[in-house]
Amino acid sequence: MKAEIENKIKAVIIAIPEGYVASYGQVASLAGIPRGHRVVARFLREYTGKEKLPWFRILRADGYLGMAPGSAGFLTQSSHLKEEGILLRGNRVDMKKHQWQPDLDFFLFHPDL
DNA sequence: CATATGACGACAA
DNA sequence: ATTGTCGCCATAT
Q1: Is the C-beta atom of A33 closer than 7 angstroms to strand C?
Q2: Shortest CA–C1' contact from A38: which nucleotide?
Q3: pLDDT tens digits, residue range A43-63?
Q4: What pLDDT score does A52 carry?
Q5: Strand B bases within 7 angstroms of protein beta carbons
Q6: Does residue A81 contact residue A43 with C-beta atoms inside 8 Å?
Q7: pTM of the prediction?
Q8: Helices A3-15 and A37-47: crossing angle, nearest 10°?
Q9: pLDDT for position A9
Q10: A89 CB closer than 7 A to any strand C atom
Q11: Quick one: DSSP state of residue A22?
């Protein structure tokens, strides 16, 4: 993974406000990789646990979490989300309500993204 | 260089 | 709402 891309992805993830979530494609897009959702997925698989990133705020565009339901990671993620007021409906979250929508603050703070 | 494969995404049935 | 298909970028073989 190119360090340049890697850092942008991190920057975007860190910028996600508490109580909100973002999709893989959304993060990729903001990081400068228009259709690189898979790159974000790969990145997360490598970095979960290694750094203090709010990786749990990243989920699929359809509301499902990325990992298999019931797996350790899935449980960890869902509990984190719950603490921020994001509850799961079935095995998915309500994207309409919780998906992060980057505002002016974000772009002013990250003019390079 | 050619394929296969992912914590994905959009769209057609 | 569910399922299948095809498209995506970066890596691994």
Answers
A1: yes
A2: B8
A3: 999 887 777 899 999 999 999
A4: 84
A5: 6-10
A6: no
A7: 0.93
A8: 80
A9: 94
A10: no
A11: E
